[in-house]
Design a protein that fits this description.
about 150 residues, 2 domains, three-stranded antiparallel sheet, alpha+beta, elongated
Length: about 150
């Protein structure tokens, strides 16, 4: 079954991509949830026209993502959390705290585009995260969790 994605779907594709999925996954999940629409011949023609018009905008969006990725490489991020004497954190660190720490550094990234590789984080130390800024730009960066 061919579908045109309306939103980004993890492990499937990005917005405005033409994907092939099993019929049950398309009919029972993607279409009802609003993630995709059927790729009929008329929808494919309209989709091609939209992509043609949007191609120059995509270059600008990618340039902004590359610029933001360069900023991420030069930033040192420290996240403070209450911890016991052994360094164990009360609770855990997630993408919300990471997005707030980036915002304090002057970098605005939506928390949903951040992925922490070693999740859940419950100990002080240095960890790696990845920012999905564009489908071709996914910089990884280090951040440090410090016990308070």
């Amino acid at each position: 079954m061919e579908l045109i994605l309306i939103k980004n779907v993890d492990s499937l594709g990005y917005k405005d991509e033409l994907v092939t999925v099993k019929p049950g996954y398309g009919r029972n999940f993607l279409i009802p949830q609003g993630y995709a629409k059927l790729a009929t011949p008329s929808a494919k023609k309209a989709h091609a026209e939209i992509l043609k018009q949007r191609s120059h905008k995509e270059a600008k969006i990618k340039d902004e993502a590359v610029e933001l990725a360069a900023k991420l490489q030069g930033v040192t991020i420290k996240i403070g959390a209450k911890a016991s004497e052994s360094g164990r954190i009360f609770g855990s660190i997630n993408t919300i705290q990471l997005a707030e720490a980036l915002k304090e550094q002057g970098i605005e990234i939506d928390r949903r585009s951040l992925k922490i590789k070693d999740e859940p984080i419950r100990d002080a130390g240095t960890y790696t995260a990845e920012a999905n800024l564009h489908k071709e730009v996914r910089p990884s960066f280090q951040f440090e969790v410090v016990g308070e």
